[in-house]
Design goal:
Layout: H1 2-24, E1 34-36, E2 47-55, E3 64-71, E4 80-82, E5 92-100, E6 111-118, E7 127-131, E8 139-148, E9 155-163
Antiparallel strand pairs: 1-3, 2-3, 4-6, 5-6, 7-9, 8-9
Amino acid sequence: MKNVLFFFTLFTWLHSEVNAQTRQQPRPQPRPETRELCQHQQPPAGWLVISYRDTDCCRRPATVRKPTIQRIDALPSGTILDICTQPIPSGWVVISQRQDWDCTPKGSTIRYSPTIKRIEGLPSGTTVEICLQPTPEGWETIGYESRLGRCETGFARTKIIRKL
């Protein structure tokens, strides 16, 4: 009888733990919409290059770096995205720089690529720490910090902005 009670108690406890963990897990996010382009194609409006890969595609006799692009115009406010170096779209800010082989041309020294955050649509009073760049319209600069390796190699200043 003790064994039955022990196993019943153990089963009940495990079941409650699994249910608690399941409830705490965030909902899965929709899979990002990505596409590959041929080497000399430009991304359409609302898309950014997030990586390159070596391939012998696109009717070229040699290996080329084929860009992978991701649609960004439908992403929610607060989204953070690693991209290759390119113009930063309106409504997004650079929050850090990272070493990135996926965006470095073959045979080159590793490049730094930006990590960006969508600030468009964030509520008033929201603060964001960004790499040095112009303060976006509708935001104000409220301070500066020194960070090691966040926006450049070594110490670099970051800017703290707040939504008006």
